[in-house]
Amino acid sequence: MTAVFAGRRIEVDAESFMQKPEQWTREIASEIAAGNGVDPLTDRHWLVIDLMRARYLETGSAPSIRSLGKESGVPIKELYQLFPKGPAKLAAKIGGIPKPRGCV
């Protein structure tokens, strides 16, 4: 299945998570974020998004919410303010990586 973000056709799953992280750009991220009620993306958002992407690209899996908080230095409470309704899931979607295991 595909979706169009920033004028590009992107492969996504049924929940609109990108299936090919190499297709991701910051422009696409901003569009996905806005479509999910997160606009604009601040430096704190980018800190979390960049960490999610880096971890996924290095290991093949996204960090848990707990390790995301520890590694980014962003307290879990703030993660929920930055990414309402599930920080790991929403940060992964904006970051152009597949849905993290364990996210509902």
Can you characterise this structure?
By secondary structure, this protein is mainly α. It has a single domain (about 1-95), classed as DsrC protein, C-terminal domain (Arc Repressor Mutant, subunit A), CATH 1.10.10.370. About 50% of the residues lie in helices and about 10% in strands. It contains five helices and two strands, in the order ββααααα. The protein has helices spanning about 25-35, 45-60, 65-70, 75-80, 85-95; strands at about 1-5, 10. Strand 1 and strand 2 (about 10) form a beta hairpin. Helix 2 packs across helix 5. It is globular.
Largest sheet geometry? 2 strands, antiparallel
Which structural class do the helices and strands define? Answer: mainly alpha
* Spatial arrangement of strands, main beta sheet: 1-2
The CATH superfamily is known as: DsrC protein, C-terminal domain
What share of residues are in beta strands?
5-15%
List the keywords:
104 residues, mainly alpha, Arc Repressor Mutant, subunit A, 2 strands, globular
Q: How do the helices and strands line up, and which of them pair or pack?
A:
Elements (H helix, E strand, L loop, with lengths): L1 E4 L2 E4 L14 H10 L7 H17 L5 H8 L3 H7 L4 H8 L10
Antiparallel strand pairs: 1-2
